[in-house]
């Protein structure tokens, strides 16, 4: 139960920090809906949905290298 509480607290912390950064950087309109979010990542970083999933998979694989 304690681990679940810690996980929930960590998740809410990450969400709060993310929302604060989005607001501080003036990206609110870039995240108002799914289409806006996808366009934000495409135009800001040149990543479409397929590319971003591929990059995420690559990051996950690199983190798991050497771990069972």
Short overview:
This protein has 68 residues and is mostly helical. The protein contains three helices and no strands. It is flat, with a radius of gyration of 16 Å.
Describe this structure in words.
It contains three helices and no strands. With 68 residues, it is mainly α.
Question: What layout of secondary structure does this protein have?
Answer:
Blueprint: H1 2-24, H2 34-45, H3 49-64
Strand content: under 5%
Straight-line N-to-C gap: 25 Å
- How many extended strands? 0
Question: What characterizes the major β-sheet?
Answer: none
| Helix-strand category | mainly alpha
Topology order in helix (H) and strand (E) letters? HHH
Helical content (DSSP H or I, runs of 4+): over 70%
List low-confidence stretches.
Answer: none
Q: Average pLDDT value?
A: 81
Defining key terms:
68 residues, 2 domains, 75% helix
């Amino acid at each position: 139960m304690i681990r679940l509480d810690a996980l929930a607290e960590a998740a809410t912390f990450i969400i709060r920090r993310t929302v604060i950064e989005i607001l501080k950087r003036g990206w609110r309109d870039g995240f108002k809906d799914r289409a806006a979010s996808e366009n934000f990542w495409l135009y800001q970083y040149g990543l479409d949905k397929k590319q971003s999933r591929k990059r995420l998979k690559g990051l996950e694989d690199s983190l798991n290298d050497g771990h069972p």
